[in-house]
């Protein structure tokens, strides 16, 4: 009926016939994926095929309306438009949807016993000063002084010599030095330490404080609509690398931090929660002990 | 082992205990979705829950690498950065992944017999001139003249009076007037027609020609990597609206067009492919007959 023309002829033409089915709710995944040509990189083909399957399944399952699609287009458009040299709103989106942590989990299935990894985050800077063990990385004299110490060891508990420990942390106000280049000394709360034969490390810093991820953009608006807060629990970042071992990117979290159960980016793992203890030393208010166990 | 501190104490603290599980490959969907608060709009909650399920399933299934994640972040970032008042690269991305057509399909499950819908596209402009039946919408005197005619009818075949037919089409060079405001007359290949009691419509235009979607951005680069061309088969757009009937947004495609089997945006449906016939009339080279059947 729909295809009958004025003179009674049916519009039921056969098309030029590659044998591909027409697009419909039922065939959509097949039609889109069959369109890829013969010279596609095999891994790209695999990734796109799987992505199309899941995106289409989502739309069918939820019966996404035209209006919701428009809201989605508007959201990703504004997210991209906010990105610049200084701001990566799409990484933030990936973080708050648990995607960054999931990619980390899928790519870091460590042997049992090794220290667990967590998100790298956007605040690492290469080239921090190499310091002697026992140095103080807090250069702005703010916050509660804390002694960090422990060992870098292998799965069997043997000390690892020559492990490079790169540390970075926010200051007492909840900002990294790179977020406040005018207000904080360069390399504030950053440093690189190399272990000796005993695998021991120690340095002074401050007890980390929690802070919100940037929430003045589309991702902040999304969090608000999802009735979620934008805070990360207090943590200090470590990158630990040693020849012959898998590089470890992780945090340690203060056990008493607010938001320890509701990290906006889902970075908390139970094994990374560390008791920070009131210190009886004259040179620090807190102490935290943590061993980094590297997988070979 | 990994959580043992220097003084032998285990870091196995219980966290502050809302009962939510920690994030892991196994729990990721649950952990992210449980984070939504109590005041979330129920439909938003439903959509986000489903989206998280499918995005996480995709990452786990394909075991997305850190490097592939970075490529993905870079791709969506560049796609968003290209968006402006004049360019919507994310809609283009939605189009070439079959998402726009799928949303159309999910939202327009017409009763059998009604004319099928297809994508609206980015080139419609409200306010085109109302014209008398038999008028010529091609104002630049280029292309092969074509007579379009047919009827607007209901499912039972009864003519619909007062149906508003809004038509838009590219010119012989493959561009819409809005893409070439300096080169084409305003409202070139556009017009609005209203049916009388007989439901008949007729107007002159040109036989449509195929054209590429904008392919100088990230979406064009993606198509190239997927070994896909950027062309749409030749078509003319119709929006047909009448009181008491569902609004119809569709194209008719020329049956002899290149790319009829490989529309870059998957807009072709078999029932929309129309034979354009060589014409024996003195005032046109081609004629196309198509009835629009509206669902009530």
Model description:
The structure is a homodimer of 296-residue chains. Chain A is α/β, with parallel strands linked by helices and 296 residues long. Chain A has a domain at 111-294: Sandwich (Protocatechuate 3,4-Dioxygenase, subunit A). Chain A has six helices and twelve strands. Chain A has helices at residues 28-34, 42-62, 66-81, 89-96, 99-107, 218-225, and strands at 145-154, 164-169, 190-194, 200-206, 211-212, 231-232, 235-241, 248-254, 273-274, 276-278, 286-289, 292-294. In chain A, the strands form three sheets. In chain A, strands 1, 4, 10, 11 and 12 form a five-stranded mixed beta sheet that branches. In chain A, a hairpin with a 7-residue loop joins strand 10 and strand 11. In chain A, helix 1 packs antiparallel against helix 2 (42-62). Chain A starts with 27 loop residues before the first helix and ends with a strand. At the A-B interface, helix 1, helix 2, helix 3, helix 4 and helix 5 of A face helix 1, helix 2, helix 3, helix 4 and helix 5 of B.
Supply the key terms.
296 residues, alpha/beta, 6 helices, 12 strands, 5-stranded mixed β-sheet, Protocatechuate 3,4-Dioxygenase, subunit A, homodimer
Structure annotation, total helices of chain A: 6
* Major pleated sheet of chain A: 5 strands, mixed
* Order of helical and strand elements of chain A: HHHHHEEEEEHEEEEEEE
- Name of the CATH architecture of the domain at 111-294 in chain A: Sandwich
Give the averaged pLDDT of chain A, no decimals: 91
Structural class of chain A comes to alpha/beta
Roughly what percent helix of chain A?
A: 10-25%
Spatial extent as radius of gyration of chain A: 26 Å
Q: Uncertain spans of chain A, ≥5 residues at pLDDT below 50?
A: 1-17
* Largest interchain contact: A-B, 106 and 106 residues
What fraction of the residues of chain A are assigned to beta strands by DSSP? 15-25%
Cα distance, first to last residue of chain A?
70 Å
Oligomer: homodimer
Shape of chain A: globular
